[in-house]
Design a protein that fits this description.
Layout lengths: L8 E10 L2 E11 L4 E5 L6 H8 L7 E6 L2 E2 L5 H6 L2 E4 L11 H5 L14 H14 L15 H14 L4 E5 L7 H16 L3 E5 L3 H7 L2 E6 L2 E7 L5 H9 L18 E10 L6 E6 L3 E5 L6 H8 L5 E8 L2 E3 L4 H7 L1 E4 L3 H4 L7 H6 L7 E2 L2 E2 L1 H14 L16 H15 L3 E5 L7 H16 L3 E5 L3 H7 L2 E6 L2 E7 L5 H9 L14
Parallel strand pairs: 3-8, 3-9, 6-7, 7-8, 13-20, 13-21, 16-19, 19-20
Antiparallel strand pairs: 1-2, 1-4, 4-5, 9-10, 11-12, 11-14, 14-15, 17-18, 21-22
Helix pairs in contact: 8-17, 14-15
Length: 511
């Protein structure tokens, strides 16, 4: 960072709330020209909200934003771009059916006089940008035909092509391999030397300490520290991010281990990022998967549920080898999935609760060849009472229910299906504490009945408190498996982020 330079951006005492939940509480951040500034924190710490305020997606409720010393109000991403802000979000913004050049210049096409698009000029300009990044990608290639890593690099090229003064990179290496990651880190250093400011968000602390000049840590929407990277070590940063001991607010009931396995996974791999994964889940056990965003947790769930095809490995359910080619086959065999995104993947929003529950085992609702609507309503009412779902769920579309009630409707579906293995992907994300406790109690009831749970959660205290054993993942590989009581939140974060030197467990070794 150039000495004594004036700030490029200053965010002072920023507040932001959503539906009464305070996401940011008096957060301040100063960014200087030519610096790489890392913004760190656990999921839910407020990083994304702060970045979206700077990118013009959200407007602060209170606080001040200064660009080169002048107060600004960014009401739209277009205004942020006009002030030199380019953002690379975790979710790709590329149009799959368009070429690389068309994506890079989308919305700002080069034109001849008379408004005719200069296709040749865009292709040449794109090639210059790609050469600058040392990327060997055809500007005319259709984006859908590129690998995920290549698409991520195109996203970066798109941001750099805008000649912005501030580049916000949100988990830019999540889809990249080691060589591509090292190339990106070299590029970031080069951009900083050219005077560009980089706001770098990553769960991979080894990368952060390799490239950052300064580090800011947020926790629960509050500013914890901003300090030169040279004055911090990874242990200090992890402690600031965690900041608490695991509490006893989780009503986990631990049962005596059952020697019989419900699920056995041997050397499982997929094209979606699962790499030679092996583990077992005993009957009535809660087996947790811990790791950062992009570590492969959800990809394992998709592979087990028949969404993604296996390229290698074997899966055994109750001792029988299975190979599900569709979710319908998995459901028929007794596997249920509560997906990470319940709105997109978990519910039929044009139906009330009872049709959403019965859909997992419609044969149980038939009266001859017809659907018995009275039985469906009666069964739905039973589960609504059992899980303490609002009674309005019988009359209202689930779209009008709270997040907690929606999640419990999905759980009710799999209880009705008589699943033997239930995969819970972020089951308490976005729901209030009362609904969380209801979910935890349901987990206890299921395991008491011998039902096995594969629990995926970014809430590390929840994961450690509610699991019997935990596997820690990174880059689609299981690095470590142990009893949850032997793993601290600090250790889990250190292993998952690369701060620990723990190596990937060999296939078949699960601890």
């Amino acid at each position: 960072m150039p000495a004594h330079s004036a700030p490029l951006w200053e965010l002072n005492n920023i507040f932001k709330a959503f539906y009464g939940v305070q996401a940011l509480k008096s957060v301040s951040l100063t960014l200087y020209p030519g610096e790489v500034h890392a913004l760190l924190g656990e999921n839910g710490s407020g990083k994304s909200t702060l970045v979206k305020c700077l990118a013009g997606v959200h407007q602060p409720d209170r606080g001040e934003m200064l660009h080169q010393g002048q107060a600004v109000n960014l009401h739209h991403p277009v205004e942020a771009r006009a002030h030199g802000v380019a953002t690379i979000f975790q979710e790709f913004s590329l149009v799959p059916s368009l070429s690389v050049a068309e994506n890079i210049y989308l919305g700002r096409q080069l034109r001849y006089p008379g408004r005719v698009v200069n296709w040749g000029g865009m292709a040449r300009a794109t090639e210059q940008v790609l050469q600058r990044l040392n990327l060997h990608i055809d500007p005319q290639a259709i984006v859908r035909n590129l690998s995920v890593a290549e698409q991520q690099l195109v996203e970066i090229a798109k941001a750099i092509s805008q000649e912005s003064s501030l580049l916000i990179m949100d988990e830019p290496t999540a889809a990249l391999g080691l060589d591509e990651t090292n190339r990106l880190l070299d590029l970031i250093r080069d951009l900083a030397r050219q005077g560009k400011t980089i706001l770098y968000i990553s769960h991979r602390l080894d990368e952060v300490f390799a490239v950052a000049d300064r580090i800011t840590v947020l926790k629960d929407g509050r500013h914890m520290i901003t300090e030169d990277r040279a004055k911090l070590d990874i242990d200090q940063v992890v402690q600031l991010m965690v900041g608490r001991e695991i509490t006893q607010h989780y009503p986990k009931v631990h049962h005596a281990p059952n020697p019989a396995f419900c699920l056995e996974v041997r050397g499982l791999s997929t094209r979606k990022g699962v790499n030679n994964v092996s583990f077992e889940i005993r009957r009535g056990e809660v087996f947790g998967l811990g790791g950062m965003v992009g570590s492969g947790r959800t990809e394992i769930a998709r592979a087990l549920f028949g969404v993604d095809a296996h390229t290698a490995g074997e899966v055994y359910l109750e001792g029988q080898r299975v190979r599900f080619r569709s979710p319908a086959q998995a459901i028929g065999a007794g596997v249920g999935l509560i997906p990470e995104n319940r709105k997109a993947d978990g519910l039929f929003f044009n139906f009330e609760a009872h049709p959403n529950i019965s859909v997992s085992r419609l044969r149980g609702m038939l009266l001859g060849p017809f659907l018995d609507l009275r039985r469906e309503r009666r069964t739905g009412r039973e589960f609504i009472e059992k899980l303490k779902i609002t009674r309005n769920a019988m009359e209202k579309s689930v779209r009008y229910l709270s997040g907690g009630n929606q999640q419990k409707v999905v759980i009710a579906r799999w209880l009705y299906s008589r699943a033997r293995l239930l995969i819970l992907d972020e089951p308490t994300q976005g729901i209030d504490i009362g609904a969380k406790l209801d979910v935890y109690n349901v987990i206890n009831e299921l395991t008491a009945q011998g039902i096995s749970i594969l629990l995926i959660s970014s809430d590390y205290p929840e994961l450690l408190a509610m699991s019997d054993r935990v596997a820690v993942l990174r880059d689609g590989c299981i690095l470590h498996v142990t009893e949850a009581k032997h793993l601290s939140e600090y250790d889990l974060l250190a292993i998952a982020s690369g701060a620990s030197s723990v190596q990937a467990a060999p296939a078949g070794v699960t601890g």
